[in-house]
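Weekly modeling sync, notes
Attendees: AB, CL, MP (scribe)

Item 1: holo prediction request
CL wants a bound-state model with zinc ion before deciding which constructs to order. AB pointed out that an apo prediction alone won't tell us much about the pocket. Agreed to run with the ligand included and paste results into these notes for async review.

Input as submitted:
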Amino acid sequence: MTTVDVFLTNCRLADGRLVDIGVADRKIVIVGEGAAPASSNSAPALDIGGDLVLPGLVDGHMHLDKTLTGLPWMGHAAGPTRISRIETDKTILPHLPLSTEERAGNLIRVCVAGGTSHLRTHVDIDLESGITKLEGVIAARECYRDRVTVQIVAFPQSGVMRYPGVLDLLDEAVRNGADLVGGIDPLEIDRDPKGQLDGIFAIAARHGVGLDIHLHEPGEMGLFNVQEICDRTKALGLVGKVTISHGFCLGGVTERKAAEAAATMAEAGVSLVTHGAGGLTMPPVEMLRAAGVLVFAGNDAIRDTWSPYGTGDLLERAAMIGWKADFRRDNQVEVAFDLVSAAGARALGIGDYGIAVGAAANLFTITASCVAEAVAAHPSRKLVLFEGKIVARDGAFLAAPIRIASDFVA
Ligand SMILES: [Zn+2]
């Protein structure tokens, strides 16, 4: 007999079935219609009342170290270019009244309240700050380890080859807790694609970690680096461990060239993460998926030095991506949801994912009849569970996770 610690009853699944979900030892152990009454367990039951139950969301691209969450409103201070934003970071971030750890923690709590169970954040590594921002984000990760998992990318935002010493810092970052190596626009920022890509891939290969490379470069310039990234991924045996962030070029070239790039990425197992950027070209999500490219999504900038927008809500982000990609039918909106859930989990290497027996009990409940409605309307999350404990309720983060006991009143 399967031992159950708690049942969630009357749960609406994405496929429309109304089921009971049994949780034991941080995992889902039963999913079935009428499973709770049929069980001889005397486990406590929490009636979900027919609300939709969905797996914990996956934010595949964030910048926890840049957020201004928790501070009084600050107007956007950078100029119109990417370089201006990079330089403005260096004048603002060191002088904020809250530390990297505090601001990252503020944003983590917001994300958890929105149903996020897993996230990947980039953290700036540069000559001015060394690995201090990494240390701040690692401290926040440790503080909230029983609410969310955090993958950290060592991100050379200012460039690599134009600042000798950054490669050494990236290596140091991986030795000190970063999970992946980052990169940025090898031509546009560094004007040395071979130097940057050889350098960051060597670090990844040496430590056996993956890479996640920001590629904002447009058109042919971007396509050139997509090819270079895919070549190195295959040559170094890193298939399935490399992500291109943004890849705006894929949406700014002819369909034939985009299709060729998609085939190259699929063959190399290089995934793409998008956030549906405003004012920039959108990678063709459906074509890329059809070609076999793993596409996932993240919020990117959330009320930070790069953008005043963003709430951390991944369902809202999925709606924005769907709007930008012109997804209208339910099956298209479900694609937008997949980007912030199962596809993200595959990209981040999270194996025990989903509302299924054996998966971690990371889930949320929401008043919506189906996935498309949850994305389009994205009302607040009623309950958020991480490893079987309630970590947020009615859109609010809980100071301490709650274990569901027999006297629990929702
Ligand atoms: Zn980014």
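Recorded for review: The first helix runs from residue 35 to 38.
Action items: CL to compare against the apo run; MP to circulate these notes.
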